[in-house]
Amino acid sequence: MKLFTITALTLLTFWQPALADGTIVYCQFEGLPGMTMTLRGGMGASDNTLQIGSKDPVQLSIGSSLSSASMDGNSYTIAWQYPASVTVSGSDGSNSSFTRYGECSSDMSIFSPNQENLAIPANVSEYAWDEVEICSAAMQTYFFLDSSPSLIQENAKVYEFRSQAGNVYSCFIARNVVAFEWINRQGEKMFSSSTQFSVAGATLRIVSDLQTKTFTLPK
User: Fold this and answer.
1) Under DSSP, is residue 96 helix (H, G, I), strand (E, B) or coil?
2) C-alpha separations of 63 from 11, 27, 52, 103 in Å
3) Of 47, 48, 170, 191, whose CB has the highest number of CB atoms within 10 Å?
């Protein structure tokens, strides 16, 4: 099944006035909910929208090679050139941001238009487990840590931890996936989104590439 990345030239074909209802483009970036762009107008038009998961659509600003939108205190900048990418930045004036790569297509057989399937589930706080605790448990499991890492800072739902050995890891949660970013001993930036979690009341189950661990909240 072949995916294609939207280029600036391809986008020009989407902006024909005859397409009164707009053209829908589905994007999936690693570790993030599905994104749906509805392109109704050209550059500078105010009726283009971006929908993330099952959230309400917001206005999408279209440029020659980039598009941007703001939602829930974050800014999303989508790059059209290969490889397609989205950069998520906090809108609080800080410089914290991260970039994820993926694919975009207007082929409905590739990316389902059913946004409920792409939505982030109910907030994990409903289960008494918060995102910091889930990230900490997932790091212990994925990196085989002997003890819980210490939270250094949090910005735009990205959590930074330091292990007892002094290693620094960033973590964010999308749906039931825990994603990590860190610098290895060779100075290379590494990324993983293979760790998954599930919650059943006070029990948290972490499944990583090499081991599975269960954590229980204290009474």
Assistant:
1) coil
2) 10, 17, 19, 18
3) 48
Q: Residue 6: pLDDT band by 50, 70, 90 thresholds?
A: very low
Burial of 218 from C-beta contacts in 10 A (0-12 / 13-18 / 19+):
exposed
Among 199, 206, 217, residue whose Cα is nearest residue 140: 206
Any bridge partners for residue 39, and if so which?
Answer: 23
Q: CA dist 70 to 22, 57, 87, Å? A: 21, 10, 12
Question: The domain containing residue 51 runs over which residues?
Answer: 8-118
Q: Is residue 2 part of a domain?
A: no
Q: Which two tokens stand for residue 191?
A: 């990324």
Supply 143's token pair: 């990196």
Closest CA to 204 of 129, 144, 147: 129
Tens of pLDDT, residue by residue over 111-154, are 544 433 333 333 443 447 888 999 999 999 999 999 999 999 98
Boundary residue ending a domain (118, 153, 183): 118
Mark 100-131 as b/e (b = at least 16 C-beta within 10 Å). bebbbbbeeeebeeebeebebeeebeebebeb
Cα 199 from Cα 201, distance rounded (Å): 6
